[in-house]
Amino acid sequence: MKPWEQDKMRVQAHFLTTNAASTYSHVTAARLHECWVWKGGHKVHVTLPFGTSRSNHGPDVMPHHLALAPSDVVLLSARSGRPIRTTSLERTVLDCARSLEFPNAVIIGDHALRKGLTIEGLYSALDSDPVKRGSARARRVLGALDSRSESAGESRTRLLLRGLAIPQPEPQFSIATESGTFRADFAWKECKLILEFDGKYKYFDFRPTDEAVFEERHREKRLMELGWKFIRIEWSDLERPYELQARVVSALGRSRKSNAA
């Protein structure tokens, strides 16, 4: 099983071996809502209306104490057929924004926006939330969300690029060609430079690999005919930000010279 499938199976195991009295929350709720989760850990997070010691739970369970409002809880379908109590998507985003590392929380929030939440609604929920601890941290996360990211890798790439001393690209930039309109993950339109994040499962999850690769190469060929140049990065490149910065600066310089000529 893939790592994220293993994490969801742990939640199902916990659900089946308890009386379903807990409400799943935080990163566990994010998984149940099928949000992107990056480095969320393997703990099963539950929120209870009463205080409890961690020793009362299994070593893989992280309990939280909060009396949730009825609007903060939803019932999701489970493999067992019984509904599973989970914090609402809105509540989940705020809990994760308060408790997770900044990029991890932004990745979940980005996907939540794509699932229908609005940034205005999240700010309103944060302002009216009786829980005040971590509000400044959550507000910083909300300020960084962008629904245009189409994967966890794109979200993390966007955050990394924002922290580098380079001109900032436009996410999900649309480019018209004779074969249709294509969207670049990130583009510096004045330089005709595209940065694409190639995640491990980009070509495998939804279509036959050969078909996905063919379409990607066809797309790239059409864009190159229009003078666009490419930088392709993977997860490992995000661990070497200054090397990536040097690549971008070099590519921008070459693109400017090429376009001027």
Which structural traits does this protein have?
261 residues; alpha/beta; Endonuclease, Chain A; 2 domains; three-stranded mixed β-sheet; 9 helices; 9 strands; elongated
Explain this structure.
The protein is α/β, with parallel strands linked by helices and 261 residues long. The protein has two domains: 3-147, no CATH class; 153-260, 3-Layer(aba) Sandwich (Endonuclease, Chain A). It has nine helices and nine strands. It has helices at residues 3-16, 26-32, 89-99, 102-114, 119-128, 135-143, 152-162, 209-225, 241-260, and strands at 23-24, 44-48, 61-65, 73-76, 84-87, 170-177, 180-188, 193-197, 229-233. A four-stranded mixed beta sheet has the order 6-7-8-9. A three-stranded mixed beta sheet has the order 1-2-3. Strands 4-5 form a two-stranded antiparallel ribbon. A hairpin with a 2-residue loop joins strand 6 (170-177) and strand 7. The relative contact order is 0.09.
Secondary structure blueprint with pairings:
Blueprint: H1 3-16, E1 23-24, H2 26-32, E2 44-48, E3 61-65, E4 73-76, E5 84-87, H3 89-99, H4 102-114, H5 119-128, H6 135-143, H7 152-162, E6 170-177, E7 180-188, E8 193-197, H8 209-225, E9 229-233, H9 241-260
Helix pairs in contact: 2-3, 3-4, 3-5, 3-6, 4-6, 4-7, 5-6
